[in-house]
Amino acid sequence: MADVTRRIGLSLGADICWPICYEEIVKKLDLNIAHGGDNVRIHVDRVTIEPFDLRQPCKYDVVLDRLTHWYHVSREWIKKAILMDGLYVLNNPWSVQANEKHTSYCAMMQLGMPIPETLMLPPKSYEDLPDLKPTLKQYAKLFDLGAIGRQLGYPMFMKPYDGGGWKGVSRIDNEQKLRQAYEDSGKLVMHLQKAVDPFDCFIRCIGLGPQTTIVRYDPSAPLHDRYTMDQQKTFVNDDEAQLLRDTTLTINAFFGWDFNSCEALRKDGVWHPIDFANPCPDSQVTSLHYHFPWLVKANVRWSIYCAVTKKKFRKNLDWAPFYEIAAERNVPYRERLRAYAKIAAERFETARFEEFCHQHLKNLDEVAHEFFATPVARDAVKKKTAALFPAHEVEAFTDLFFKRIQKWRAEARA
Ligand SMILES: Nc1ncnc2c1ncn2[C@@H]1O[C@H](COP(=O)(O)OP(=O)(O)OP(=O)(O)O)[C@@H](O)[C@H]1O
Ligand SMILES: [Mg+2]
Predict the structure, then answer these.
(1) Number of folded domains in the chain?
(2) Distance separating alpha carbons of residues 212 and 234, to the nearest angstrom
(3) Which residues sit with their C-beta closer than 6 Å to ligand 1?
(4) How many whole angstroms separate alpha carbon 223 and alpha carbon 316?
(5) Is the pLDDT of residue 157 over 90?
(6) CATH code at 124?
């Protein structure tokens, strides 16, 4: 048996807390895994930003990336490393770059998901480019915004077709507000989307590889209270939980997003996904608090599985198998969704992953449980809190987040 080391790189931005917790837990696990005739050990370090030669080798087997969606040098280094060095990365960088909210709506509508009625508007104003006038003069049709509003029906949401972070989102209740919102939208290309209203439950389902967790979400609460601590069984039954998992994993496998979250609202017993192009979602303890240990553990499991087994990265998204199932319109949607989720389970190697965790990561629960009680864990929470909160609130909020993590620990033991 040869001793080999698999290298996991953390490609980070303003992340403070989860990388510390991840590194500490992997260190404490001190893995030495018998795999394929080798003894495999894990080494974790942080990816640095520097000039690179396109032919230089990459030392990592897996990269957990937080930069692709906004820092292009890291994104391009990752692309090179996938193409030339066989890197496995969370998430597929081409898919992050190309597939915005709009594409995700279209694709999942075609798969049959009950996405609310959505339409796109040409923008109110433009950058003055040389070809603009002749193009618009010849082809832009005058349209009646009032008629569009009446056709879609109020209330509705106006939001950027490629949005994120609640930027440019407004709720619209009548024609006057619609006209004002369009006036204010400037150069942004906007969707109008029928509101799911009234809804009786709002969830975020986070997917990391084949793992998911469903959290009730309260968009009206302050940032640190939006992810509620409600027990799952109090707001969704088992069938609904399965539907939400199947939905999330279908989206994530379709787009090659190992780490993504899906927002869905329930109205009259139907779950409507409304926002699910969130590759690399919020991972901060200051928003996830009670759910933060789940995220760190899910990251540890999936990255170690991919590194040890040298999981092959899918460079192509290959949508055809999903569309073949979608074409069977006489099959009820829930059955088609199950079939999509089966493709997701193949792509995420769910059965093999679960077996791997059972064999090799048995003590992760214990190690994480102990770690999240330590001063190192508390200090990591404090560092993130200090980066976001005014100085006089740091101690109180650190206490609050750490207490919620202790609640998670107590319940994990119950
Ligand atoms: N069709 C809808 N029905 C009801 N509420 C909606 C709808 N679309 C958006 N919203 C509300 O507006 C919020 C922001 O919309 P959305 O999530 O699509 O935008 P975003 O910019 O991606 O926001 P974030 O990054 O916070 O998720 C949602 O969390 C929800 O509260
Ligand atoms: Mg959202």
Answers:
(1) 1
(2) 17
(3) 116, 157, 159, 163-167, 169, 193, 195-197, 219, 263, 265, 274-275
(4) 36
(5) yes
(6) 3.30.1490.20
